[in-house]
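To the team - flavin-adenine dinucleotide complex, inputs and output below.
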Amino acid sequence: MYKKADVVIIGAGAAGLMAGIWAGRTDPNRSIIILDGARKLGAKILVSGGGRCNVTHDRVDEYAYAGSSRNAIKKVLRRFDVPQTVEFFRELGVDLKREETGKLFPVTDSAKTVLQALLVAVEKANVQIQHPYRVDTVEKTEKGFCIRGVWGQIDARYVVLATGGKSLPRSGSDGHGYEIAKSLGHRITPHIFPALAPLTLPKDHFICTLSGITVPATLDLWSGSGKKLISFTDSTLCTHFGLSGPSVLDISRYYIAAKHEDPETALTINWLPGKTPEQMDQELQALRSATLQRYLHTYLPQRLARTLCEQAGVDPGTPGYQLTRTQRKALVHTVTRLPLPITGHRGYNFAEVTAGGVPLDELHLNTMESRVCPGLYLCGEICDVDGRIGGFNFQWAWASGYTAGISVGK
Ligand SMILES: Cc1cc2nc3c(=O)[nH]c(=O)nc-3n(C[C@H](O)[C@H](O)[C@H](O)COP(=O)(O)OP(=O)(O)OC[C@H]3O[C@@H](n4cnc5c(N)ncnc54)[C@H](O)[C@@H]3O)c2cc1C
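Output:
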């Protein structure tokens, strides 16, 4: 097959579909093609938010993101903000509802609604989607770009690279986009790694025996020199392999990044969020005849309370007045500052996003056009931007996809 087009968008994920819709709306006379290597379109949108698609968050700002500079991220986010996202989906027939946590979901509670609406909008914008059309190479030519795959070749004036990262590779995002970006002159951050990833513990660690228990907890990240780097407090899930849940997913990228620089980086867990070791110590001293089990069960499930006592080497039935100073210190440490001997993470098959990518300082942020390869635009997860759990990653895809789309359509 040989074809010519004005614009070729590589990747039909959230960012690529958004770019296609806005490029087509900006200039309906342009020929715009979206190519995607996947057999099934939108696999990641369909599985997102547990099948409900957490489209965005009520309060989005640059502090919910990591990777490139916060200032750079803010510049892109404000080009298409949350009210615009809500209005955009409303106009596509997808009303969003806000949950207590601030997360926004479609009122249908179905990710299918979101994908279907985006695909209809792409068609209405007169944009073609071709799949499975995996792109192997993109070459800069005198008049634009030559895009090649086993299916043939397309010559285009402009290319939008929206190939995502490496997370959930079975959805089609296998990281080949980074190679394409590099071949066109871009730098990629020195580390590309899973973010929003569950963390693993040694198989015989006591937390693995508590599989299924979910509690609010605080995770603290410490540098080798003992400085607290970052904390997250949220729901925490004990599993047969280690830990998961929002607090763990949120801290995982900071833990993995810090480990690259400092192997002594450590994670601790406080099972009583908001309570300092000093406060707990004082409360234990004031217990008198109440038992440790009773005290801990005020805050924690029985099984967890009992196990934490056992780990600290104290009998859960001990009344407060019988507790020795050493026992008290051991329990306080186990409950409020337990070191987690993390062995790793669950990898790209379980990570919701990829940290690292093309640094934003290589792009013009008002257009998402490459500074090193004019005519090339980048958007979505291929950029060095990753957000917290809660709809922030899609908001990045909508904002950067919109910006690339209207710019390439002009
Ligand atoms: C399980 C899971 C749940 C999630 N839930 C949420 C959520 O609820 N809310 C939220 O905000 N974020 C969520 N995320 C993150 C969010 O889905 C991503 O950040 C977002 O989809 C990234 O969009 P993208 O378009 O940049 O990349 P992707 O969605 O990864 O899309 C990239 C597309 O490019 C295609 N492609 C790649 N390489 C090539 C190539 N060489 N040739 C042709 N096509 C190619 C792929 O097939 C893919 O379709 C979740 C992620 C996962 C894995």
